[in-house]
């Protein structure tokens, strides 16, 4: 469930980069988000979840938010009412896809959370309006929200904004199947102060920049601030 997409071309092939935020339906009179412990009052099917008794606890999957409305025709439960399937929101990652056939060629997996688990000025998986440890762990984690791709010479870089924990991840995506982490910038966030909630990114190439240097503009939803970052190339 990407919230933003960007396209770039390498070797005559067009690639799509998606920021996999994920989002639940929350409308007047209908909200599909429910915690696993409430969604599965009869527990988890041990044939599907071998450690079902432990997983249903809050220390396992109990607090994870999942949908209470799975795909049409699916109940997600066995005859005893135990849950056999759980559908959560967002992949907590960014992905790269071949635009010609929509085959995934790369996904960052849990690396965004691995990279942000020991930040000096914000607790792990804190939200953008608090500094509470693990506040976002049951719900979409750092929440990849925005993405742009920039080209420097023959190299391509993806910039991914993390809405909740904040900051911008940078990956080189020249070889899409072997995207590699370059750096992470958390802006001026310090607990509940500074830049928080990056919602949109805009890249300004050097030829269009007022100072002749490539720039990245970060719009922060919660703090209501706009940060302009100068990109200093190291190659």
UniProtKB/TrEMBL annotation:
Record-given protein name: Choice-of-anchor I domain-containing protein
InterPro entries the UniProt entry points to: Choice_anch_I (IPR055188), Mesenchyme-surface_protein (IPR052956), Quino_amine_DH_bsu (IPR011044)
Domain Choice-of-anchor I: 1-231
Highest taxon in the source lineage: Bacteria
């Amino acid at each position: 469930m990407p919230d933003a997409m960007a396209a770039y071309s390498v070797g005559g092939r067009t690639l799509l980069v998606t920021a996999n935020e994920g989002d639940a339906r929350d409308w007047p009179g209908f909200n599909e988000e429910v915690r696993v412990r409430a969604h599965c009052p009869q527990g988890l099917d041990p044939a599907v979840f071998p450690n079902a008794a432990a997983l249903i606890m809050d220390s396992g999957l109990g607090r994870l938010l999942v949908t209470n409305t799975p795909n049409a025709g699916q109940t997600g439960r066995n005859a005893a009412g135990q849950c056999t399937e759980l559908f959560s929101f967002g992949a907590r990652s960014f992905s790269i896809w071949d635009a010609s056939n929509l085959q995934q060629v790369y996904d960052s997996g849990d690396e965004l959370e691995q990279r942000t688990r020991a930040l000096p000025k914000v607790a792990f998986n804190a939200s953008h309006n608090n500094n509470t440890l693990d506040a976002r762990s049951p719900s979409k984690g750092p929440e990849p929200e925005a993405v742009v791709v920039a080209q420097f010479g023959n190299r391509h870089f993806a910039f991914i904004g993390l809405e909740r924990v904040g900051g911008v991840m940078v990956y080189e995506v020249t070889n899409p199947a072997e995207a590699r982490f370059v750096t992470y910038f958390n802006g001026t966030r310090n607990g509940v102060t500074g830049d928080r909630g990056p919602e949109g990114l805009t890249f300004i190439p050097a030829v269009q920049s007022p100072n002749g240097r490539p720039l990245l503009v970060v719009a922060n939803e919660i703090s209501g601030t706009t940060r302009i970052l100068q990109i200093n190339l190291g190659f």
